[in-house]
Amino acid sequence: MNNTVLLLDNSDNVGVALMDLFPGNQVMLNGKTIEIQDFVAAKHKFAMRAFAPGEEIYMYGTIVGEATQAIPEGGAITLQNIRHKTKKYQVQTGGYSWNSPDTSSWQDQTFMGYKRSDNQVGTANIWLVLPMVFCENTNVQLMQEAFENALGLKKMNPYERQIRTLISGLNGEKFTESVAQKTEIFESKIFSNLDGIRFLTHSMGCGGTRQDAETLCALLAGYIHHPNVAGATVLSLGCQNAEVRILQEKLQALGCTKPLVICDQQQSGTTEALLNRAIEETFQQLIIANQAMREPVPLSYLTIGLECGGSDGFSGISANPTLGAVSDLIVALGGKAILSEFPELCGAEENLIQRCESPELAQKFIHLMETYNEAAKRVGSGFDMNPSPGNIKDGLLTDAIKSCGAAKKGGTAPVSDVLDYTEYATKPGLNLLCTPGNDVESTTGLAGSGANIILFTTGLGTPTGNPIVPVIKVSSNSKLVKKMPDIIDFDAGTIIEGLDTPQSAGEKLLKLIIEVASGKKKTKAEEKSNFDFIPWKRGVSL
Predict the structure, then answer these.
(1) Is the pTM of this model over 0.85?
(2) pLDDT 10s digits, 15-31
(3) Is residue 168 classed as helix, strand or coil in its secondary structure?
(4) Which of 73, 309, 363, 473 is 20 to 30 A from 453 (CA-CA)?
(5) 175 pLDDT tier (thresholds 50, 70, 90)
């Protein structure tokens, strides 16, 4: 790769700066020499020809904006001279031909997973404790503190040391630590085959719409049914909208037979009675869950979630295409990939429509996209307002630019299914899942739909993780790896530097996925206990 400038598609009329460009610099693209007129920061774009107001801007071979004022050849593309615009998509399906990648070197590869009785395979073995309603959050937290302290799972907060040092300084003393204070509590071996007990809290379950309560129940059912989960303890107040009955109906619809400990506070009486029972029964189930063992299984049992957050102008060039290469490999091997974040597919619809395996899937995708966008407009927003200030600063000026890069995570495979939020992925192949672009809401949804590994690209950095699914963070640029090494698992910036292609980086990433899926390597998010969980209130978040 030319490490100065890049043309993403031969039909594009703007180029991408891979390094800072200054007025007077001459660059060569598509056989044409262009003199740069303005400062163009790395990750940003410049005009390959002169534009008049109203003319369309092309990137990734499609429309991503239009000029709002005259732009000279070599001029910088900025928020002052372009605005969001997308190509009006055509509804055409059939005839899509996929050149699947060569998987011969991966056919006999396996990962060490947990086989479940329903033929799902987990990459972890976790017991889940969750509330039906926010009223039970405090009781969940009491259980968490009790179990983590008693089982030796609690890690010392490293910032406690800093505060103790500051306190001792008030009295002119020097803070000295005991051996116990310096050493993190060792991880318990009592349940050595459990990868963790995870405790969820949330702000939903009552006081909102009945639809949100039902959606919450469907999401929680997806978490309990998840192959990484051995079973769950459910705390209910008893009078909330999100009834245990609805949760049980959702579990039955999924065919879930996982062990459940259900405790109702209003039936139990005192908090002590509730928690005594919840802890006693949970402990007995942990003994059973601990009997699960990892065993080798084919890569076809992987379901990878495809996510991005804190994106930059390199995300659609390096990290996202790397995920696309991995997605294609997993699909070709018979596994599942789930592409989420519908606000970040705005402008990439036509390509995805053409790849849908049936007209019905295409129509469902269009319906979900348009319904969501209209709901956003009704509250004064819209998909065009999706890019964050950080996105814009680093080169993603319009939602279409951001979306066309984000869609690269889905590779080139046909679309085998389209899922609304909380629908569970059951069909091998590439699935499209309706979620917000909000990082945590989207990863929460990916886990609820069955992803047993989540791949998360970022150009600016984010600590996001998930309580039940390992989240592998993939950097779009190597500078971020050096700046925030404690949150990045894989560097795709080598593509920008010309050391890798998306295909070679994808092969390396798949090797890391196998290690993580086998429990041989923890992700940075797991190490830092970034277990984020935010259910989506429909029509509110973007």
Answers:
(1) yes
(2) 999 999 999 999 999 88
(3) helix
(4) 363
(5) low
